[in-house]
């Protein structure tokens, strides 16, 4: 019997494998419940007394060599896995890195933020689900004011005071309520209007609105700021302000930029006039300042607001606004930007 065990020991010493299952069955063969170790050990009582010592030693040796063998083989397996897992084959050529692309709305939004941040504007944000006060009443649009119809609003049925904001002017109200002048902030964000979806309009889109409040702010400051903006964003410095109406600004204006009539696309985009309407603006109505806790005798200011989607369409010659929310990869992959 002792010789038999010795044979097993030399077999164990010779054994090698790099297969996880084979190593496991090897372990079970010797050390499992019905394995050889237990088999020999249960024979211990039949061994003559004078051989018990040698027998015990040899059986224990068997257990020790098997344990050591299994540990070494498993360790080798782990090491190999680690080497491959972390570094793989070091001679292989690198994997191609696919650069992601930003959504055109984000690209244009970031460009606009970048331009205004250079003249001291910070960025403010607010909730998309708004209350009546911040979206309408504080902005000089009390209940039953006819101008509320200018913005087809989604109301929350169970809470008539709560709505999806129709413009980011609501963020400006929040900002004025919480900050003292001088104020220079732009508020980008998504807005919602109950409009039919077509190539030119959508029931949600994005705006960026600006607010400047300080002592002695004039209409000339507004025009200068907008001219700086159009020059930076479009490379076009000729703008015109057409009188318009917004309940929260007085006087109010629409801003057109002279796009030019050099190409056929220019003709198409500007309907042959060379001018493109890009935003609304005006001097903040003193009522709005008062509503937001700012002394209208001491401070004045201007505000402006534009649709990011519309500007993205212009800048990237996109013909259908719906493309911006369809998440078609073939479309999105065309936009690469560091911004
Ligand atoms: N809030 C206006 C809109 O959504 C835009 C605007 C902002 C006009 C600020 C004037 C001043 O149409």
TrEMBL record:
Location within or outside the cell = Cytoplasm
Database matches in Pfam families: Phe_tRNA-synt_N, tRNA-synt_2d
| Aminoacyl-transfer RNA synthetases class-II family profile domain: residues covered | 108-325
GO-annotated cellular components: cytoplasm
The UniProt GO MF terms for this protein read:
ATP binding; magnesium ion binding; phenylalanine-tRNA ligase activity; tRNA binding
Entry EC no(s): 6.1.1.20
Highest taxon of source: Bacteria
- Which keywords accompany this UniProt record? Aminoacyl-tRNA synthetase, ATP-binding, Cytoplasm, Ligase, Magnesium, Metal-binding, Nucleotide-binding, Protein biosynthesis
Under PROSITE patterns, the record lists: AA_TRNA_LIGASE_II
InterPro entries referenced in this protein's UniProt entry, alphabetically? aa-tRNA-synth_II, aa-tRNA-synth_II/BPL/LPL, Phe-tRNA-synth_IIc_asu, Phe-tRNA_ligase_II_N, Phe_tRNA_ligase_alpha1_bac, Phenylalanyl-tRNA_Synthase, tRNA-bd_arm
The catalysed reaction is:
tRNA(Phe) + L-phenylalanine + ATP = L-phenylalanyl-tRNA(Phe) + AMP + diphosphate + H(+)
Q: What class of enzyme is it?
A: ligase
Gene Ontology biological-process annotations: phenylalanyl-tRNA aminoacylation
Question: What does the entry comment about cofactor binding?
Answer: Binds 2 magnesium ions per tetramer.
Where on this chain does Mg(2+) bind? 250
Per UniProt, subunit arrangement is: Tetramer of two alpha and two beta subunits.
Q: Which family does it belong to?
A: Belongs to the class-II aminoacyl-tRNA synthetase family. Phe-tRNA synthetase alpha subunit type 1 subfamily.
Protein name (record): Phenylalanine--tRNA ligase alpha subunit
